[in-house]
Structure to design on (286 residues):
């Protein structure tokens, strides 16, 4: 049996139960209870549901909803890429902290902000809670992930859709970060635009990548290219599943000032213990 990950994002499948897999005894009791309730005509939620699954350039992308009786009556949403878990709604502290730490460091009002990687929308919605944010571009590579939000298959879709400050941008963050400012960039309607903050949560860490081709982004050359789309004193913040990475810190220090790596602790109910993620925050020189 695989060891559960100590980090917020789940790599292990030790607790995974698909529709054709065995139920554990607690679940069996729950299933019997549900069957009785069904006979009595009471409406009950399903324990597991695969909401959508679509092929993509980087693997099969799947949205699932489950209930784990031992963890109470709440729907848990999960996104998988191939066999890997990308995101769970079970613990989102560091995804929220990415916005809070990044935007608290960002100066000024009427902020234009980019979020790289939509996932289940926690970073995006946390950014929208900052009243100083005037515009939020959410850059997402996989069209199904955007559609799950637009069609409100996921809980935070309605918050993003209802907020006129937000806009989905379908494209690869890394390609748009690399674009020549005169002809491209994150905002297709405003080539060369500069932003107050860029908040990134795509790969598991600067070393653990969703796609091998992303590796070139975490270099001084390409982080500098992305920084052309930040205003002077603008903020770059990035989520990671791993402890502070000295090599990446050095890359950030070559491009930015005020570089910090914050530890975000949270309780992992699957392991019944504290766990952590990290958030890098850095400022473009003024
Ligand atoms: C871990 S999730 C982000 C979680 C998000 N912070 C949240 O609060 O739910 C990573 C997201 O990045 C997306 N992604 C993968 N490669 C990408 C790329 N090259 N450009 C933009 N988004 C990408 C994935 O489809 C996924 O939606």
């Amino acid at each position: 049996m695989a060891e559960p990950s100590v980090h917020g994002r789940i790599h292990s499948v030790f607790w995974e139960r698909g529709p054709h897999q065995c139920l554990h005894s607690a679940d069996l009791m729950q299933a019997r209870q549900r069957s009785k309730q069904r006979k009595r005509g009471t409406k009950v939620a399903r324990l597991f549901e695969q909401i959508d699954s679509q092929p993509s350039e980087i693997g099969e992308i799947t949205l699932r909803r489950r209930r784990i009786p031992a963890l109470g009556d709440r729907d848990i949403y999960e996104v998988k890429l191939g066999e890997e878990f990308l995101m769970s709604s079970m613990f989102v502290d560091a995804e929220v902290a990415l916005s809070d730490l990044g935007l608290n460091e960002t100066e000024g009002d009427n902020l234009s902000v980019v979020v790289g990687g939509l996932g289940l929308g926690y970073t995006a919605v946390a950014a929208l809670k900052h009243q100083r944010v005037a515009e939020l571009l959410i850059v997402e590579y996989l069209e199904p992930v955007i559609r799950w939000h637009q069609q409100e298959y996921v809980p935070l879709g309605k918050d993003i859709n209802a907020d006129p400050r937000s806009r989905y941008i379908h494209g690869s963050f890394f390609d748009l970060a690399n674009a020549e400012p005169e002809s491209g960039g994150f905002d297709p309607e405003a080539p060369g635009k500069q932003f107050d903050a860029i908040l990134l949560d795509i790969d598991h860490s600067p070393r653990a990548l969703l796609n091998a081709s992303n590796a070139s982004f975490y270099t001084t050359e390409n982080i500098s290219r992305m920084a052309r789309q930040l205003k002077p004193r603008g903020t770059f913040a990035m989520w990671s599943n791993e402890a502070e990475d000295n090599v990446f810190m050095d890359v950030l220090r070559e491009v930015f000032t005020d570089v910090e790596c914050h530890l975000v602790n949270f309780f992992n109910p699957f392991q019944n213990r504290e766990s952590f993620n990290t958030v890098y925050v850095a400022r473009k020189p003024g």
Remarks:
- Residues 86-87, 95, 116-123, 139-142, 145, 172-174, 201-202, 210 surround S-adenosylmethionine (CB under 6 Å).
